[in-house]
Amino acid sequence: MSLARYERYRDSGVEWIGEIPEGWEVKKLKYCTNLLIDGSHTTPTYLPDGIPFLRVTDIQSKEIDLNNVKYIAVEEHELLSKRCNPEKDDVLLSKNGTIGITKVVDWDWEFSVFVSLCLIKLKKQVLNPKFFSAQFGSNVVDQQIVEGSKQTSVINLHLDKINELLVIIPPLPEQTAIASFLDRKTVEIDRLIANKEKLIALYEDEKTAIINRAVTKGLDPKVTTKPSGVDWLGDIPEHWEVKRLKYFISKLESGVSVNATDYPATGAEYGILKTSCVYNYNFNASENKAIWENELDRAKVSPRKGSIIISRMNTPDLVGASGYVDHDLPTLFLPDRLWQTVFWQGVEIDAKWLSYVLKCSSFRKLLSITATGTSPSMKNLGQEEFLNIAIPFMKIDEQTAIVTHIETECSRLDAIIEKFKKQIELFKEYRTTLISEVVTGKIDVRGEVAA
Q1: Which of 14, 309, 380, 407 has the highest CB neighbour number within 10 Å of its CB?
Q2: SS3 for 422?
């Protein structure tokens, strides 16, 4: 985009902001607000309905989904409102965990907020809420947030640091023009990103379909089939057999129990594999938690090349997630929420083929049904139940052929997906750069609003 610059600039007085147009100012946020406060410091009693109680997760989407927010009693809301009373045209800012997300209150219904959100009541004669919110999508505020956040187990942006944030202040008519321009342009960029994300989802679905077809029907579409006698499997090629998992797997090794509070912050030589690395298929040691050296004597299980790691305890959609270990990880140890497979000697099996069977959608659905647990958000697989599940079986050369087919087709799709992901990153970088250039006055968009 080729846009004009302003006619005259002056030094902002801030090195990393640089020059700003004449007539613009830089002020600390505390001089531009009537109130800056965070939400409730205690978790209220949640109800099936009542007054919406917003948290960071609720403001991350473009629209607030009232079907997924928490609700509190009217009486509790009225009590919280005496200290923190959000109103239309106020700005919400996330200050805990995921920081720097803003949402301009553009609705009329009443609500309260949790401590993770900061409520900002701007002086309307100084700052346009939408222009102010746009600055949080720029490098200018982003840099300050990184420097002003305090990182412990989560990242926190304290109120005193928020008050000290420097904001750029053009004349109000220009703020309105800039906000309108950015509204239009960011919608266009977000639409491009959304289209790419839809394409990625379609290709991911195609990868899933390739795996499902290959491990349950084989590679010959004309092959004669027969009933497998297994509900999750359906008809299978006539020359295949059905075997229980215990026919291949002699045992499932569980890992060590280590509390999150027991992890050393830095400097430990050894690591414990994160459960998330299983369903992300990421066995990079640098991504995992550190473990104290004195835990090593009871952390006996280290991921081995050629084994399969299975999540035995997880949320309903992730219990049973698995990943094939394609390289040795000698300095990592398993947490007790994971299993590692040990295979019977003498059984001809391609472990990669079995790992694809375990990823089959209908198999994963069966695992989510088989898993038990008193909590609806956490399910557990029993070893005996898991090992008694029946799967298809064929000769080793066909297993290997299935693996080759899946990896060839999925690699082709992964290359396309990676291209789209890079395009999305470029769109996001362009959006940040555009916002930064506009809100700092490096380009003049006043004549572009009606374009």
Answers
A1: 309
A2: helix
φ/ψ of residue 277, rounded to 5: -65, -20
How many C-beta atoms lie closer than 10 Å to residue 49's C-beta? 8
Alpha carbon distance 132, 146 (integer Å): 18
H or E element: which one contains 235? strand 235-237
Supply the DSSP symbol for 262: G
Closest Cα partner for 193 from 446, 448, 421?
Answer: 421
Between 346 and 440, the more confident residue is 440
Residue pair 288/273 in contact by the 8 Å Cβ criterion: yes
Token pair 């139940």: residue:
385
pLDDT of residue 55: 94
In the chain, what's the furthest Cα-to-Cα distance? 81
Q: Are 102 and 141 in contact (CB under 8 A)?
A: no
Model confidence, pTM: 0.81
pLDDT in tens, 257-289: 655 444 434 434 444 455 555 545 444 444 444
Residues whose CB falls within 8 Å of the CB of residue 225, separated by 6 or more in sequence, listed in order: 217, 235, 236, 237, 238
Whether 197 has a pLDDT exceeding 50, the answer reads yes
Q: At a CB cut-off of 8 Å and minimum separation 6, what does 206 contact?
A: 413
Looking at every residue in the chain, the average pLDDT score rounds to 86
Name the least confident of 133-137, 304-308, 428-432: 304-308
Going by C-beta distance under 8 Å and a sequence separation of 6 or more, which residues neighbour residue 9? 19, 20, 21, 22, 441
Q: First-to-last CA distance in the chain?
A: 13
Structural tokens at position 168: 């750029």
The yes-or-no verdict on residue 153 having pLDDT over 60 is no
Look-up: residue for tokens 């990676």? Answer: 418
CA dist 2 and 10 (Å) reads 22
Q: What is d(CA 71, CA 79) in angstroms, rounded to the nearest whole number?
A: 14
By the 8 A CB rule, do 54 and 112 touch? yes
Residue 310 β-bridge partners: 322, 339
pLDDT at 253 over 50: yes
How confident is the model at residue 295, as a pLDDT?
44
Place of tokens 């959609």: 317
